[in-house]
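Lay summary

Proteins are chains of building blocks that fold into shapes. Our project writes down both the chain and a compact code for its shape. Here are two examples, one after the other.
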Amino acid sequence: MLDIALLMANASQLKAVIDQGPGFGFYVPLVALITISLVLQISVGVLLIFLVRYDLNNPAKHAKLDFLNNLATGLVFIIVVVNIFITAFGVQKPVVDLAPRQ
């Protein structure tokens, strides 16, 4: 469930950054980092699906499964680091000015 929450949070952050537009100081880095995070999360999800489909009882496949498991762990670590940078750059929702203009 945490993976889905992070995926939804990144999608929401991407929407907020795109709503702010290119005038936002960190527009390009944030769009790039959020996109990288989303792609990596989807990749890890697909990788985990492949991991589950392999036969764990077959010793011949243990080396490949260990490699795929280590790869998934490494990608999750990279996702965490990327999301730390996303948080550091700060995604703010655009503020709508409702005050009447004179």
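And here is the second example, written the same way.
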Amino acid sequence: ALQAVFGTMAITGTMYVMYASRIIRPTPAFNKIIFGLVVSIMLLYLTSFVLQLVSPYDVPFLHSSGPIGIGITCFILVVAALTLISDFGFIESGTRYGAPKNMEWYAAFGILISVIWIYIETLRLLSKLNAYRD
């Protein structure tokens, strides 16, 4: 779990540095793509959950520790990390345009959810890598 904490901190810090140095900017097209990917991943996890509840079937490779399963988890981890860029952009535009005080909670909640998602996906990746190694 400690590796996941340090990995999450490294990913979050790297995303902040990339945002602050303007390497990655949250354009409207970027935000639309990230939103679409997040909704797609959410539907994938929801489908997997429902299938496990009502049938003996599962979404192939999503929970496997093989190379494809590890690749899928890496892709989802990248998407989770890129949501931080959208969160940082939301905060910056809110301060630039004088958003109301209650919007601070939305911004903080967005970052919190992104960091928790990164932590969970990092745990999942470390678990799959450990199982693949054995």
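What can we say about the second shape? Residues 7 and 13 are 10 Å apart (CA to CA).
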